[in-house]
Amino acid sequence: MPEIIRFNPNKQHYGTTTLITGYALCSSLLAVINKFAITKFNYPALLTALQYLTSSFGVWVLAKFNLLHHDPFKFPIAKKFFPAAIVFYLAIFANTNLLRHANVETSIVFRSLTPLLVAVTDTAFRKQPYPAKLTFVSLFIILGGAVGYVVTDKGFTLVAYLWAFVYSMTITVEMVYVKHMVMNLGLNTWGFVFYNNLLSLMIAPFFWVLSGECGELFSSESGGWDRLEPVAFVAVCLSCLFGLLISFFGFAARKAISATAFTVTGVVNKFLTVLINVLIWDKHATPIGLVCLLFTLAGGVLYQQSVTSPKPVASVLARR
């Protein structure tokens, strides 16, 4: 009898090219899809809750069909992970509200400021050495591009930039603190996705009520569920689907390629996001703002080059 081939959820079954392509498409499209979704379905807290529900439930269902493996939910681990989930939720919630009040490019600019904020935080609070000269130059290119973008932003509103500030702060905290804590919990890739989204889903109702969306959604005077037209329904479904897909392709690609290649892919994705956003509609920055954004992204590429040290020859040979 022919041997039965069984699917092993712990084994890599996808080619590197497939993973990189999938990650690039999801990453490039997600910001635009989220902007489209929040434009058609103006409830940021509920939208993020639906994304967490889709991702956590999707991981659970796929695990039941033995298509992947995730760590089981345990209260002691959840208790340790909870602060990370809070910061993660705040970052996504702030970014969704930023997209609600500003264009995609504004979100990218403030996301690109992260290396500068992390470098300052590391030096001030973790007593890390000052950045090297090339790193210092790249950080100021990022800052200069961001300042230029803000100055030339015709759609500037105080509310949008307050959310941009909150988003930058929460992302910086995630980079400096949360990642260090998460890596010490011993969770596998899908365990991280499962805990992160499930705990964030538990936090979501608090922000749903706090933001006033709960009353607005169920109010007949404000339209409520009447706003969930077919186009809005499709937009929300796409946002939730791509949220799950980027979890898979992002973590899988991170395992399949080097950290440098993954970061460069992420930067290229931002260029693709800007291109897609400019081509599909008029909700984008001015030409001068786009030039400033390109300077910010170029500074990000230079920063990555400045902090990437070549691997010793011995370690490279040892892997062969």
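Above is the first protein from milestone M3; the second protein from the same milestone is given next.
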Amino acid sequence: MHFISSLFVHGLCIFLSFFKQIKSKFSFFLKISNWVFQTLPFSQLSFSFWQSSKMEGTVFAPALKELEHVKSEQGEILSKSFLEACKHILPVIDKFGAAMALVKSDIGGNITRLETMYSSNPSRFNYLYSLVQVEIETKTAKSSSSCTNGLLWLTRAMDFLVALFRNLIEHEDWTMSQACTDSYNKTLKKWHGWLASSSFSVVMKLAPGRKKFMEVIGGTGDINADIDKFCTSFSPLLEENHKFLARLGLDDMKAS
């Protein structure tokens, strides 16, 4: 009996040791898998998954809905709705994979900066430009960590995306790389230094294939129609931001 008990305990120890090794290796495998899916754009496996679970409507649908309420009755841009509309574009950027990782990070960071200030006093910062006006009063608007700077770079990044989306529906013969490069040259390039511009050129080589990308973001809706609606609705807001910042002499700040 003592022998059988010892044998059982010994066997249990071997099993637990084996399980521990398997668990460790499985954990490592999960980390590697996550890295692959997050880093490599449009792997065949991930693309097949997206295809098999198409979304209702297009990926632009939530942003379009938010834009219906982006202005007050007086015609002023509302902070919360504007930032929510920008946030709804992040899933679109996700579909670019590693090619747009830095753009997504920049947009997400600026949204968070502006949201943090808005959340500190929603009634005071109900209107988007009130986030800038308070910094004008405290003479902090030109700080690299200011909400003014955040709004400026968020607007510029969205300029780039709107130009890119327009290219995708207006130049169907262009590759994704061509569409991205043209949009970058028209919007962000003049505000970036040599290093940032060179890095962008390299990263664009990771851009997904145009056809697959359009299929993925299309879902069950009319993707061309939704892209056109988004650009038509959102562009005037960006122009309004630029005019407001220009009146204050804050629309020409370059990357530090």
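Note on the second protein: Residues 1-53 have pLDDT under 50 and may be disordered.
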